[in-house]
Queue: 2 jobs
Job 1
Amino acid sequence: MIRRIVLIILALIFSLGPSIVAAEDEINILNSAAEVHFPNELVFFLEAESSADIIDARLHYHVDKMNYARVTSEAWTDFVPASKMETRWTWDMRQASLPPGSEVTYWWTVEDAAGNRIETPPQVIHFDDNRHSWQSLTRGILTLFWYEGDEAFARELMDTCEEGLARLTEGIGTYPEKPINVYVYASANDLRGSMIFPQEWTGGVAFTYFGTIAIGISPGNLDWGKSALVHELTHLVVHQATFSPYAQLPIWLDEGLAMYNEGELKPYIRASLDRAVADDLLISVRSLCSPFSADSEKAYLSYAESYSLVEYLLDNYGDEKMLDLLTIFKEGSTYDDALTAVYGFDIDGLDQRWRESLEAPTLAGLGVPWSHPPIIAALSALINSLTFPEALAIKN
């Protein structure tokens, strides 16, 4: 009896087997490929044939980036149903752009009029900026790409990155959990040429969800570049440390940490803070929770105050409190509730305590306040002489 049942099962398998294989083989994929046209578009191609008219071809793709859940997008293509077809779909980066080096996994599903369906194996394409001959240097989780300058230039930038990460770890206990890629363009113009609709002052940008930094640094502008690189690197690390569906950092905290990790406040930005203190023209901390003004002088002051606020919190309450604050923001706390839970005061309380800690500066040895009219005129001339890219290009 058992033998008879086994024979019946085998007979059924053999009778069904050929029809299953035939159904899978009804549709043949002749070509599946993708082309990078950086920075404007990514084009996907498909060519297929079947014994029946192909009536549907659908592209599926997934972008490798930090996300709260795996997201797969779909794209439909237009073509005339036929037994042999060719189609394409273009990702127009004017709608949603990708940074250099982004990894995209894609596959197609194809159906014909006979009800046959096939899914192609996943393929990976990197949205590389192939207009330049990139070299690379890797240390641990950091990889630096560059195309102008010698290896010593790259090593110095890599040393700067490692020093910046060490300061973050020592200062507030944060360290990146995912790999970081740094693309060093030879100039700000080259950088802007790699972007869709860039701001005219852009000199560096952190793509926080991708773990990517793109920045314009020439070998002759290394000092500025090292400072800017640490700034953008800090943004990446802080965003990795606070990544969650609920977190929203106040702008002053995000920018203040990035500037503080750069080192001493630059003189022209410090001058903006000193003038505001002397003339009682400080921007409120609550206002600094939102995006900063596009006006250059207000922007200088916003960044200066952000630095000063972070400096005040670290100097008076320590590193552990700052890490606690970031952790609470990661959990989705409001600005006021997070500050109250960690420090015992809300945004307005921080504003009051911070202002009380500031003193109107005077010129050393002369007792002349910064608000003295000739001093104001001189500082205004200094600030106006600085171009917007020099002063603010890194503040993204």
Job 2
Amino acid sequence: MSHKSAQVLVVTVLFLIALGVTMLCSTSVFGAHASADDVYYDVKRQVSWLAIGGVVCFVLALVDYHWWQRTAVFWYVLAVVLLVLCFVPHIGQKINGESRWISAELLGFRNLRFQPSELGKMAMIIALGSWYDRYQSEEKTLVRGFIVPVTIAALVVLLIIGEVDMGSAVIVALGAFALMFLAGANWKYLAGSGLAAFLMLAALVLAIPNRRVRVTSLFDPDAPVGGVMLQQYLAKLAFGSGGIEGLGLGNGRLKMLYMPFAHTDFIFPMIGEELGLRITLAIVFAFLLIAVSGFIISFHARDRFGTMLGVGIVSFISLQAVLNIGVTTSLLPNTGLPLPFISYGGSALLAVMAGVGILLNIFRQGDMSGKERLQGIPKGRITPRV
């Protein structure tokens, strides 16, 4: 599969995008932005973002991924500044009690906003990959192998937590942990920091009433259906009514003003209701293919930075898919994360499309055959050392 990994990646992404646009046409007509004048308002916006994302993906597939290494400091500082701007009045936009967005209204784009956390994820990957590539022989040391990388990741995580975006914060933290493990950081330091991060997350959940109720209600069979459990309760109804075959495209009922955010965070149950278990399992398999092909590309990169960059991108896409599917199937507390490539949302779509473009560039420069490796191509393989 090594030579075909890029083809598998592209075909799988196209399948998810096509399914996402199709389901958006079916569900968004009942969304908050739909009106009698233009029921496909959200579809048009998503297609516009898709066109931009396609261009970005194509361009980044041509740009040498080492450019990201040379500009790592710039992207990290930019991400931190934009995350801070989320808390600035008239720039940051607060929706449903969460400060995740920056509005472009001051620039004359009243209806345009984006989530800096998406840039924060990529910036953290680039920064950690660049750092560990620079200090390859010191990954097990306390300062350069652990404290500095943790500080790089922690600043992004804490700013995202301040936005009350626990889902993205968990993804960034887990992604950083994966990269540090891959780089060969001391396992004792990693174990200690993992335990400390878990305890801090638990304390934050207990301190924020809304998050605490989401967690406790998930494990309480007598919890009321309304409130924070409404979406997950309706999601189970959607999966149950769809069964194996589904009710048919466009025939879903729970999207009709019953399910909040049916075309964004909870589009997966809408797919289950209309297209059935077979398509939902196909989606799970598609994300598995993305993970496998992405990791193959990453571990055949020409150097250490390429491997870490690729693994970081694949980890973020896969973790977000796992969390979204886990939430919509009531296995995890509600985190408010979109399903990559499928859910409505310009920032998230643009971020994953950019990630795919970078992966394709890593593939184009990668070592896909043992013959090439014997001919002296620079070694870039790294393995976790425990």
